[in-house]
Structure formats: C-alpha cells, structure tokens
C-alpha cells in the first residue's frame, strides 16, 4: 500500500478568522469591543482578528485565576488529578497537531515541517510535568531546638502571568504552562500581538481537556497595554516572561512594585565556535541549522560564527555553497527550507541591520536582499545572509538582529575564541565544534552561557534546564529544577 505525503498544507477555512479570547472558561470579546489584525507574513494579508484586551480584561482574567486558585475546584484537586488533566491535554495536542501547526505557520511564517515536529514534541512536556504533579513535596528537618519537629511543604505561588513572544508562541507557552499547572498554580497568558492564533487554538484544547474555570485564561492584546497591566497587577505572584531584554527590564521594574517573582528568558547573540580540527561538513550543518532555522528568529540563533583562521576560507566556501541551495518558499509547503520573517516591522529591522553591516565594513558574502521572484514578492522574505570579515565590536556582532543574518569572525587560538565568545552582553547559548574532546571540556567552564552544545546545535529537551547568563535572562525553564520557580516553601514547627 502506498502512502501519499502531503506537499502543501492549507488553512481549514477561508476568509478572515474571528477569534475570541478565553477568560474563566468562556469565549469573550474585549471589554472595549476593539480588535486587532493578524497578518499572514507570506501573503501580507490579514488572515485573523483577535480581541484587543486591555487593563479591564486583564483584571477580569486575574480575578478568575485568583478565584480558581483560592476557592475553585482546582484548589481542591490532588497532584495526580492535575497530572491527569495535563496528560489529557497532551493527547489532545497530539490529535490536533496539524491545526496547531498551521495556525502558527500562518501567523509567523515559520516552516510547516518544523512546526509539525515541534507541536508533536509538546505532548512530551505535558507527560513529563504530569509525572511531577504528585511528587512535589517538602522534607522533615532535624532542628537543634528541643522538643520540636520541623517540616516543610512546597506550595504553589498563586496566579502566574505568562507573557510570550511571537517567534515560538506554542512552545514557549507550554514551557511555562506545564510546570505552573503541575505545581497547582493558575495562569493568565498574554500572547504576542503578532501571533495570537495558535495560543487561542491551544486554549480550546485546554477547555476540552476539562481544566476547571479560571485555571488558564488567555488575554490577547498589545504589550504596552495588556502586557503592562499583567506585569503590574498586584494579584499576580509571578511573571514568566520570554521576549526581548528591553521588555524584560520593564517587567522587572513593574512587577517589583508588588514583589512578584520573575523568570526572564531574553535575547542572545550566541557564538558557534569552529576549531581547525572540526568535522567541517558537520559543523557547516550545525551553523546552517543554528542561524537559518525559523528564519533566524530564535533566541538561541547561532548568529556569531567564530572560525579558526587556518580553515576560514574552506569553511566560507562550504557555507556559501550550502546556503545557496536553501529553498525559500511558501511556509506551508513541506519542501520549503526557509520561510519569511514574522511581520513587516521585523522585516525592515533586519534589512536595516544588513545596511549597517555593509556600512561598518563587513564583507557581504551571500544574500542581503529581499527576493523579487513572483512567488515570494508579497511575503516578508529576506535572503539567507552571510557577512564575512566581521569584527566583534561591530553592531551586527553585538546587537540581536533576530533574522537570517550570520556574522563570521576569525580567531587564532582557544584563548582568543573564548574572549570573543564572551565579549557580548548576552549569554544564552554557545557551541564548540572540535574532534578534541579535552579541548571541548576545557572550553565549557570558560564560556559564559546557560547552554553549551559540543558538536551539535539547538538541542533542547523538557528534561534539561534552559536559560541565560547575563542579559539573556534570570531563572531556567524545563527540567525538574523549574518546579522551584513555580513553588514556594513553608516551614512548619510542631511542639512535641
Ligand atoms: P518583546 O519583548 O517585544 O515582546 C515579548 C512579549 O512581551 C509580547 O507578548 C509583548 O506583547 C509583550 N510586551 C511588550 N512590551 C511590554 C510591556 N511594556 N509590558 C509587558 N509586556 C510587554 O519580544 P518579541 O519581539 O516578541 O520577541 C523576540 C525576543 O524574544 C527576542 O529578543 C528573543 O531573543 C527573545 N526570545 C527569547 C527566548 C529565550 O528562551 N531566551 C525565546 C524566544 C524569544
């Protein structure tokens, strides 16, 4: 029996999709009745509209989440009951993989083939954290005080505000939702105004899974209104934020008014370090995946490639040759290899950085333009772009471009490679490509970054902590460690 492989995925509807937002298990418009558009970056046309949530809507959502936490059915559930709901959500995500993936592709222009894999992986997050839901416990502590028993309990924080960006809305929401709910918190999620759709599709599955009213709420709207109101709300006990370092600073300032906890997953300018003894074709694969996946719009993008001077020319030749073969096209086509950037403002920003790179004297080795072929002309496409002869003090090497632009920088020895790698405000990730395992291990403690990949790039897992040093963030997501970020400890003294 032959199976046909789908070549192009389609939206399961025509016309502009009207979304409502999700508060207290109900689908509602915003209090003001206003809406905003979501533009498909491949066609440049509006494909969906979502409610313009503002402070009043955030207030309603936080109220629902607070009631659910304090007195609702959720507050009486056991860990294993919470775990069952999370597992059910995982099953529903798996059953609805295509719709979730398509919604995100049409919202932000990343590839359907990448999104299908990413959505499939999300059930793993549900199962992993469901497993923890009934294993979050304190300990008995042998205190020196006579006739006393002391023990601790780990309690949820209360209402968690999750503020997420446009580049991976579903994945970055699930990184927060799974541990937050496993630990017994409730949530208000504020998606990016660029990409509300996939999180609203997820909310339908949250409702279908049977989470009680108010446990998860989604308020769509702009950062400076809805996001700001959520960060400032006195009943929110934690803000879990992923986004730019600039917004991260504001979140810290605003949430500090009422001493809410924060975790921040911010930007990056990650170095991909290629030594002279690296397996070169493998390293070239890692560099391509590191910078051109999701059109370079990932926090972990390997946007600075540090190449040993003795192999620089050979590396450039291989990289340029492989980059020239990358197929740009409709992100809903299974054979497209690079999609668009997510929206017009980002498109302009990336093209501006390409101009800056040329003005700074970097050598444009490949790409640099908006393609003009008929199929691509309406989309926010940018050719995969390689700059050679980059100095690390150039703006293109220091500032996060968040697009398909890679900077190649030469180094002469290990010491210089480390100095260049760490000469950045960021510290999210790094990679080392070498066949010398001792050298690789020597590099690890010297690199100031939250993740180091050795002879690979971009690997993440629900079981492994992810987060940044320096301006790349505070706190970690994923792994058992993250449960500490969603619980607080109570110390109990018993007179015997
Ligand atoms: P952004 O900071 O502009 O927006 C992120 C979210 O914050 C959006 O929902 C936005 O509406 C909201 N927001 C904006 N202003 C706000 C305010 N004043 N108060 C409260 N909320 C506000 O970031 P972006 O452009 O959507 O995303 C790209 C950035 O995200 C990049 O810097 C990227 O590196 C970073 N990112 C980091 C990670 C990570 O795990 N470290 C992952 C993905 C993206």
Give unreliable regions as ranges.
none
The CATH homologous superfamily of the largest domain corresponds to: Aldehyde Dehydrogenase, Chain A, domain 1
List the ligand species. Answer: nicotinamide-adenine-dinucleotide
Strand order of the largest sheet: 15-16-17-14-13-18-19
Give the helix tally: 14
> Beta fraction of the residues?
15-25%
State the shape.
globular
Structural class comes to alpha/beta
Q: Span between N and C termini? A: 73 Å
Radius of gyration: 23 Å
How many individual domains?
Answer: 2
CATH top level class name of the largest domain: Alpha Beta
Kindly state the mean pLDDT as a whole number? 97
What's the CATH topology label of the largest domain?
Answer: Aldehyde Dehydrogenase, Chain A, domain 1
Roughly how much helix do the residues carry, as a percent range?
25-40%
The biggest beta sheet is recorded as: 7 strands, mixed
CATH architectural grouping of the largest domain: 3-Layer(aba) Sandwich
DSSP strand tally: 21
GO molecular function: oxidoreductase activity, acting on the aldehyde or oxo group of donors, NAD or NADP as acceptor
InterPro entries: Ald_DH/histidinol_DH, Ald_DH_C, Ald_DH_CS_CYS, Ald_DH_CS_GLU, Ald_DH_N, Aldehyde_DH_dom
Protein name: Aldehyde dehydrogenase
Domain Aldehyde dehydrogenase: 27-492
